Amino acid sequence: MKEIDGRGKVVHSEEGTEAPYDLLIAIPAHKGMEVIEKNGLGKSGWIPTDRHRLNMEGRDDVFVLGDTTNLPISKAGSTAHFEADALAENLAAMAKIGSPVRDYDGKVFCFIEAGKDRATYAMFDYQNPPSPKPPTKAVHWFKTAYNRLYWASARGLL
Questions:
Q1: Angle at CA of residue 109, ends 105 and 115, nearest 5°
Q2: What is the pTM of this model?
Q3: Spatial separation of the C-alpha atoms in residues 81 and 154, rounded to whole Å
Q4: How far, in Å, CA of 95 to CA of 158, rounded?
Q5: Which residue of 48, 95, 122, 157 pairs with 130 in a disulfide if CB–CB is 3.0 to 4.6 A?
Q6: Among 36, 124, 29, which residue's Cα sits nearest to residue 73?
Q7: Do 49 and 75 form a contact (C-beta atoms < 8 A)?
Q8: What CA–CA distance (Å, rounded) separates 109 from 105?
Q9: Which tens digits make up the pLDDT trace of 125-139?
Q10: Which residues form the domain of 26?
């Protein structure tokens, strides 16, 4: 999308086409951080990251997690969580035996709210694309309980 004409209810594309709409639900493009590019750490605000070891490409002693990576996966919090599990195990192994012991497999888990107290989820990795199930009220309530439990336990760790 290049531009949205809210009054005329038309979406204008970069290519010059137009599409009318009644209800537009759009997600802005996810962008990397300007500070990364300004400091020469990566193009377009993303740090080039080895997809399995999670080190900055060209640097064996610099590791990158979460939404600063250029990895072709979700920039969700669960991504950083699963990356951190793999990296923590590898850092401990490198300190103890001198080499990493596992690869990060691209694992991601995301809840997806669908409205009207219904939700679903997507679980995927580098080898298995997302395949969300139809949304249900049960998943919505599980997500709600999970979020409360997660943040209650996270505060206890701080």
A1: 155
A2: 0.75
A3: 12
A4: 25
A5: 122
A6: 124
A7: no
A8: 13
A9: 999 988 889 999 999
A10: 1-30
Whole-angstrom Cα distance, residue 150 to residue 142? 12
- Rounded Cα–Cα distance for residues 104 and 4 (Å): 39
Q: How many helices (H) and strands (E) does the chain have?
A: 3, 5
Strand partners, 108: 124
Question: Are 26 and 42 in the same domain?
Answer: no
**Selection from 38, 99, 33, 37 nearest residue 66 by Cα:** 33
Tell me if residue 5 falls in helix, strand or coil: strand
| 53-83 pLDDT, tens digit each | 999 999 999 999 999 999 988 888 889 999 9
Q: Could you tell me if 12 and 48 lie in one domain?
A: no
SS3 108: strand
